[in-house]
Amino acid sequence: MNFLAHTFLSGDSEEILIGNFIADFIKGNRFEDYSATIVDGIFLHRNIDSYTDQHSVVRDSVLRLRPDYGKYSGVIVDIYYDHFLATNWLKYTHKTLKEHAQWVYDVFQKNHDILPPRVQQILPHMVNYNWLENYAYLENIERALIRVGERAKYNPNIELSIHNLEKDYKAFDQDFQRFFPDLVNHVNYFLSHLRG
Questions:
Q1: Residue 61: which of 44, 47, 46, 81 has the closest Cα?
Q2: Is 39:31 a contact under the CB 8 Å cutoff?
Q3: What is the DSSP string of 71-96?
Q4: CB 23 within 8 Å of CB 41
Q5: What is the distance of C-alpha 25 from the center of its chain?
Q6: Please, what's the b/e burial string for 45-78 (b: 16 or more CB within 10 A of its CB; e: otherwise)?
Q7: d(CA 77, CA 61)
Q8: How far apart are CA 125 and CA 182, in angstroms?
Q9: What's the DSSP call for residue 72?
Q10: Does the pLDDT value for residue 196 go beyond 60?
Q11: Which DSSP string corresponds to 112-170?
């Protein structure tokens, strides 16, 4: 899953949110400077990624892209799924996407000093361009895919995967609708057993 899903799956805990968001920017177990709850958020992020990668429906989505995009297919699917979360947002929560995005930005800005340097660098762009709300729009999904392509060591024209999404939009949407409730249930179980 990508940024929007990870923030959504953090629930209402600011520290879980911080840990869940920064996890990809933390190497190994180098989190001795963080609170226990932020560390829980880091482990939640890793658990979400592991569960997602092993889910049969996600594998179906990935296999649809693999002939064109190889090992980057999973990253592309993560971005697609954030789009479908944004477009189906009110199926999963009573809080609007705008309210959620503003809460996330407020939490990160309030805790700016404890964020890893790379997160501090991207945060102004995330807020100014409203990444979380903009996942709902295909032109912004295309921009996200272009950014991934620019960072990739080997880029098999990742930016062209917007056309795969447009062509197979219904199939990817159906995959997401089948998968996401399973992920929500899994995360709720994981969070209920933290330190318990």
A1: 81
A2: yes
A3: GGHHHHHHHHHHHHHHHTGGGT-SS-
A4: yes
A5: 13
A6: bebbbebbeebebbbbbbebbeebbeebbbbbbb
A7: 7
A8: 32
A9: G
A10: no
A11: GGGS-HHHHHHHHHHHHTTHHHHTTSHHHHHHHHHHHHHH-SS-S-GGGHHHHHHHTHH
* The token pair that represents 82 in the structure block: 């954030």
Using CA atoms, how far apart are residues 106 and 155, in angstroms rounded to an integer?
A: 34
pLDDT tens by residue, 129-180? 999 999 999 999 999 999 999 988 887 899 999 999 999 999 999 999 999 9
Whether 39 and 121 have beta carbons less than 8 Å apart is answered as no
Q: Residue 155 and residue 70: Cα distance in Å, rounded?
A: 10
Secondary element (H or E) of residue 93 = none
**Domain interval for residue 110:** 3-192
Radius of gyration from C-alpha coordinates of the chain: 16
Domain count, the chain: 1
| CA 132 to chain centroid | 10
Question: What global pTM score does this model have?
Answer: 0.94
- Helix/strand/coil for 186: helix
Residue type, 50: S
Cα–Cα distance list, 193 to 40, 62, 118, 184, 187 (Å): 11, 30, 31, 14, 10
